[in-house]
C-alpha cells in the first residue's frame, strides 16, 4: 500500500483537487492522506475546512499556519510557520508522494519541507505564466522541485519540458477544475436564488478580483478603476462578488469592495466563500465573469461564459476567445463590459471552443500517479532540449 499525501490550502485549490482525490481513493493499493492548511483554518476566510468534512473526506491533519495580515512580512512569517509545521508533519507521517496544485506561497513551503525530507512531489498546473503575481516565480520553482507534472494544455507541457523536466514525467491532462463542471449536478436558477438569499437581475456579473502581488500601487489602481467601471453600468445589472485570496495587499481590495457595496447597495451581493457547487452554479446563471481570477480563464469558457480579464495578474495565460483582456483603465473596462454584455457577443459564445481539456483530468492524474508509485521513481536528471 502506497500513501499519497494531498495538501490543500484554500477553497480554490480544494475545488480543483476534488476529483483527483476521488480518483485516488478509488484505487485499491493507494492510501490518501488529506491535509488541510492555509485559509481553510481561518475564520476570516470562512473556515472552509468544514466544507471538506461535509464532502465526506477524512482529514489526516488540520495544520494551522496562522494566517494574519497582508503585508510582505506577514506572508513571509506564514511561510516560515508552514515550513516548520510541515517539516514536523513529514517527520512523523512520511508519504510515498506529495500531491500539490498551483502556485501559492503556503504550498511552496509545504513543497520545500517535502523536498528536504526526500519525498517525491507531483504538481498540477505547472508551466503557466501569470506575470502580475509572485505566484509566477513560485509556480516555476515548484516545477523544479517536482517529479511528476500534470499540465492543463500542451503548450504548458512543452514549457515544463523546456525547464529541464524529462518528457516521460510530464503529462497534459487538462485542468481538473473542469471535472467539477462536467460531473457535478449544478443548482438551478431558483435553487441558487434560495441559496444566495436574493433574486437574479435582468443581467448578472460574477466578480472576483485578487491583488497584483508584484505591486501594491498597481493593486489599488486596478481595483479602484475596475469597481468604478462596474458602478457605471445600469441598474438592471447585479454583481455577485467573491472575496479575494489571502494574498499580499488583499486588504486594499476588501476596503474598495466594501465602499462599492455602500454605493451599489441593492444590486451588490458579497460572499466570503461559496464552495465549488454554489460558485460554479452561480457561474452557470450569470451573463459575465469579470475580474482577474484564473477561473475566468479556465472554467468560465468551458461553461460558455463571456469573460472580462482586467489588468496584469493573469497576463501570460493562454486564453480562448470567450475572454476579453483590458488594462486597468476605467473607460476601457466599462467599454469592454458593454461589449461582452451585448446580444451580439453573447450569441456567439456557444460556438467558441474551450482549450483547457475535457473534464476528465482526475482519473488520468490518479492513474499516472499510480503507475509511478508501482514502477518506482528514479533520481531526477536535467533534460536538455
UniProtKB/TrEMBL annotation:
Coiled coil: none
Name of this protein: UDP-N-acetylglucosamine 2-epimerase
Domain UDP-N-acetylglucosamine 2-epimerase intervals: 27-367
Pfam families: Epimerase_2
GO molecular function (one): hydrolase activity, acting on glycosyl bonds
Entry keywords, A to Z: Glycosidase, Hydrolase
NCBIfam families reported for this sequence: NeuC_NnaA (TIGR03568)
Name of the gene this protein is made from: neuC
InterPro entries membership: UDP-GlcNAc_Epase (IPR020004), UDP_GlcNAc_Epimerase_2_dom (IPR003331), WecB-like (IPR029767)
Source organism (scientific name): Bacteriovorax antarcticus
Enzyme Commission designation: 3.2.1.183
Domain of life of the native organism: Bacteria
Amino acid at each position: 500500500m502506497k500513501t499519497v499525501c494531498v495538501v490543500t490550502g484554500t477553497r480554490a485549490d480544494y475545488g480543483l483537487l476534488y476529483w483527483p482525490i476521488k480518483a485516488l481513493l478509488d484505487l485499491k493499493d493507494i492510501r490518501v492522506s488529506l491535509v488541510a492548511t492555509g485559509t481553510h483554518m481561518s475564520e476570516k476566510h470562512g473556515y472552509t475546512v468544514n466544507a471538506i468534512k461535509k464532502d465526506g473526506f477524512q482529514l489526516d491533519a488540520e495544520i494551522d499556519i496562522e494566517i494574519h495580515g497582508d503585508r510582505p512580512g506577514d506572508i513571509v512569517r506564514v511561510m516560515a510557520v508552514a515550513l516548520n509545521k510541515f517539516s514536523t508533519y513529514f517527520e512523523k507521517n512520511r508519504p510515498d508522494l506529495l500531491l500539490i496544485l498551483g502556485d501559492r506561497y503556503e504550498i511552496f513551503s509545504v513543497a520545500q519541507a517535502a523536498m528536504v525530507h526526500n519525498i517525491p512531489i507531483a504538481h498540477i498546473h505547472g508551466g503557466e505564466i501569470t506575470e502580475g503575481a509572485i505566484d509566477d516565480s513560485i509556480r516555476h520553482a515548484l516545477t523544479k522541485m517536482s517529479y511528476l507534472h500534470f499540465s492543463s494544455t500542451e503548450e504548458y507541457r512543452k514549457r515544463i519540458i523546456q525547464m529541464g523536466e524529462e518528457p516521460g514525467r510530464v503529462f497534459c491532462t487538462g485542468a481538473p477544475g473542469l471535472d467539477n463542471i462536467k460531473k457535478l449536478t449544478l443548482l438551478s436558477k431558483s435553487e441558487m436564488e434560495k441559496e444566495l438569499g436574493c433574486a437574479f437581475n435582468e443581467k448578472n456579473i460574477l466578480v472576483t478580483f485578487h491583488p497584483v502581488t508584484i505591486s501594491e500601487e498597481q493593486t489599488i489602481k486596478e481595483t479602484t478603476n475596475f469597481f468604478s467601471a462596474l458602478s457605471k453600468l445600469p441598474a438592471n445589472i447585479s454583481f455577485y462578488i467573491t472575496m479575494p485570496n489571502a494574498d499580499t495587499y488583499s486588504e486594499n481590495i476588501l476596503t474598495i469592495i466594501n465602499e462599492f457595496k455602500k454605493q451599489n447597495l441593492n444590486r451588490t451581493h458579497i460572499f466570503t466563500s461559496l464552495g465549488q457547487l454554489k460558485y460554479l452554479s452561480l457561474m452557470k446563471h450569470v451573463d459575465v465573469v469579470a475580474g482577474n481570477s484564473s477561473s475566468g480563464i479556465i472554467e468560465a469558457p468551458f461553461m460558455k461564459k463571456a469573460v472580462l480579464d482586467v489588468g496584469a495578474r493573469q497576463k501570460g495565460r493562454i486564453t480562448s476567445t470567450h475572454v476579453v483582456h483590458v488594462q486597468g483603465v476605467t473607460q476601457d473596462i466599462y467599454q469592454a463590459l458593454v461589449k461582452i454584455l451585448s446580444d451580439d457577443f453573447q450569441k456567439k459564445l456557444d460556438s467558441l471552443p474551450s482549450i483547457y481539456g475535457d473534464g476528465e483530468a482526475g482519473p488520468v492524474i490518479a492513474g499516472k500517479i499510480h503507475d509511478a508509485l508501482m514502477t518506482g521513481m528514479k533520481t531526477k536528471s536535467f533534460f536538455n532540449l
